[in-house]
Amino acid sequence: MNILFAGTPAIAVECLAALVAAGHRVEVLTNPDAVSGRGSSLTPPPVKVCAQALGLPVHQPPKLDAAARQPLEDRFDLLVSFAYGRIFGPLFLGLFPSGGVNVHPSLLPRWRGPSPLMAALLARDARTGISVQRLAQKMDSGDVLEQVVLDLEGTETTGSLTDWAAEAAAPLLVRVVAALEAGTAVGAPQDETQATFCSMVSKAEGRLDWGLAAAELDARIRAFDPWPGTFTAWGGQRLALRRSSLVASTDGAPAGTVVAVDKSKGILVQTGDGLVAVRELQLPGRKSMDFRSFLNGNPSLVGSRLGEPT
Questions:
Q1: How many whole angstroms separate alpha carbon 298 and alpha carbon 272?
Q2: pTM of the predicted protein model
Q3: Who contacts 23 (Cβ-Cβ below 8 Å, separation ≥6)?
Q4: Structural domain of residue 295, as residue ranges?
Q5: What is the mean pLDDT of residues 278-302?
Q6: What sign for the dihedral angle of Cα 138, 91, 100, 13?
C-alpha cells in the first residue's frame, strides 16, 4: 500500500521501520525540528531520523492546512498515525481512500488521550495494552481493529512500558495493514459508557505528598519515570526519587520520615499509610545514585524527614 506515516517520538520508530520492511511504499509526516538541549539547537524528531536513515521522503508542515495537503493529494491509500501529536481534520483525512488508522497504547476505550501508559500506572490498572483503531473525528473513538494485552506486575515504569509498546506495536500494526489491504479487516465499535480519559502531566505534579498512601506514591514514582520525574525537599534541596516498591509494614513515624534502610529494597519512607522503598536518588547538579552510594555521602538521610519546606 501507499502509506503516509504520521509520527514524532521514539515510540513510533519501530512501527515505521516495520511497515517499510513489509514492503509498503511509505512517506513520513512528522513535526518540525524543535529547539532542545542547553545549546538551544534544532533537533529532528526521532521519526524523522529513522525516515532519513531508511531513505524515505519526510514532510514537516507547521500546521495541517491547505498548503500541507496540496503535495499529498492523490498519492496515498492509507494514513497511519502513532503519536503524531496533532488532530487530523476531515479535509486531511479525505486525502486517503482507505481512511486512516491510529496506534494507541491503551486498551481502548480506557485511557483515551495523550498519556495512556502513565494513566494506567497511576490508576494501578491490572493490565494495559495497545489498540489499533480507525481514525475518527472524536479523539481515540474509532472502531478498534485489533488489540494486544499486557498484564501488569506492579513494577513497571512509563519508560519500561514505552519500550514494550514500541516493540509490540510493530507486528500488530503490520497485521492490521495487511488485513486492510486484503479487505478482511473488521472493526469493533467502542463502548462509550466505558470510556476514560487522560491528560497531559505538568512538572509540578512530580512533587510527592508523603501524606498519601504508599501504594499511590509508588504508582506516582513509577508513572512519572522518566518524565516529569518525582521529587521532594530534603535539607533545603530538591531531591529526585526513582525506582520504588512497596513494603508490607509500617513504622508509625511522621509521614515523610526515612525510617530505615532495607539492604535489598532501598531507603524506607513512612507515608500516610505504609512504607515505600526507594532505590535511586539524585541531588541537583549530581548524578543519579543507587541508595547505597547516596547514603555513603549523605548518611544523615536516615532519620530525617522528607518534604519539609526548603
A1: 25
A2: 0.94
A3: none
A4: 203-301
A5: 97
A6: negative
